Amino acid sequence: MERSISPDSVMLLKTAQAAGVTTAWDRYETQLPQCGFGETGLCCRHCLQGPCRIDPFEVTGPKNGICGASADVMVARGLARSVAGGTASHSAHAKHLAHTLLKFSRGEATDYGIKDQAKFYAVLDRVGIARNGKSDQELAGELAQLALDEFSEREETPVWLKTTVTPGRMTKFEELGLIPPGLDSAVAEVMHRTTNGVDADAVNILLGAIKCAIGDYTGMYLATDLSDILFGTPTPVMASANLGTLKENAVNIAVHGHNPVLSEIIVAEAMGMEQEAQAAGASEGINLVGICCTGHEVMMRHGIPTATNSLSQELAIVTGALDAAVVDYQCIMPSLPDVAARYHTAIITTMPIAKITGATHVQFEEHNAGEKAREILRLAIEAFKKRDPTRVNIPPVTNDALAGLSAEAIVNVLALVNPDDPLKPLIDNIVNGNILGVCLFAGCNDVKVTQDKTFVELVKALAAENVLILCTGCAAGSFARHGLLTPAATQKYAGDGLKAVLTALGQAAGLDGPLPLALHTGSCVDNTRAAGIAVALANKLGVDISQLPVVATAPEAAMEKAVSIGTWAVAMGLPTHVGVVPPVTGSPVVVEVLTKAAKDLLGGYFIVEPDPQAAVAKMVAALKERRKGLGI
Amino acid sequence: MERSISPDSVMLLKTAQAAGVTTAWDRYETQLPQCGFGETGLCCRHCLQGPCRIDPFEVTGPKNGICGASADVMVARGLARSVAGGTASHSAHAKHLAHTLLKFSRGEATDYGIKDQAKFYAVLDRVGIARNGKSDQELAGELAQLALDEFSEREETPVWLKTTVTPGRMTKFEELGLIPPGLDSAVAEVMHRTTNGVDADAVNILLGAIKCAIGDYTGMYLATDLSDILFGTPTPVMASANLGTLKENAVNIAVHGHNPVLSEIIVAEAMGMEQEAQAAGASEGINLVGICCTGHEVMMRHGIPTATNSLSQELAIVTGALDAAVVDYQCIMPSLPDVAARYHTAIITTMPIAKITGATHVQFEEHNAGEKAREILRLAIEAFKKRDPTRVNIPPVTNDALAGLSAEAIVNVLALVNPDDPLKPLIDNIVNGNILGVCLFAGCNDVKVTQDKTFVELVKALAAENVLILCTGCAAGSFARHGLLTPAATQKYAGDGLKAVLTALGQAAGLDGPLPLALHTGSCVDNTRAAGIAVALANKLGVDISQLPVVATAPEAAMEKAVSIGTWAVAMGLPTHVGVVPPVTGSPVVVEVLTKAAKDLLGGYFIVEPDPQAAVAKMVAALKERRKGLGI
Question: Are residues B493 and B619 located together in one domain of the fold?
Answer without folding.
Answer: yes
